[in-house]
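Hi Y.,

Following your request, here is the sequence exactly as I used it, all 138 residues.
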Amino acid sequence: MEENKQELSILDILLDEDNEDPITLYDENDKAIKFDQVAIIPLEEKLYAILKPIDEMENVADDEAIVFVVNEDKNGESILEIETDEPTAIRVFDEYYNFQIVADCSQYKMLGYDSMPSFIFGTDRKGRDFCKVIFNAL
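Below is the corresponding structure, written out as tokens. Let me know if you'd prefer a different format.
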């Protein structure tokens, strides 16, 4: 999966906020595998991409994603390589999950609150009062 056979560089594709097309990578047998981009995570002066396979992949469950590191090949072109260091891959996923929590918590202003709400019975992931949500459902 080291080579990307697209006209744009893989870095351009990954950083393009408007790109919703799948990312096609090629394995060592030149088989094309399509991925959805989940996130780009900068960590310790490196850039990582979390990609979820669209196509079936051996040893990868349907609900799993793969951490790739952006490296340069011998010609100075950006390439993606699977991050093989498990502790690093776990740290990349942790950064992604931490970002998701911050993004979810920041939505309280969109719900009309001036500050982060806190309720006796807790809140759902959108900051709404559980008690109110449950009571209204009765």
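Residues 2-6 have pLDDT under 50 and may be disordered.

Thanks again,
Q.
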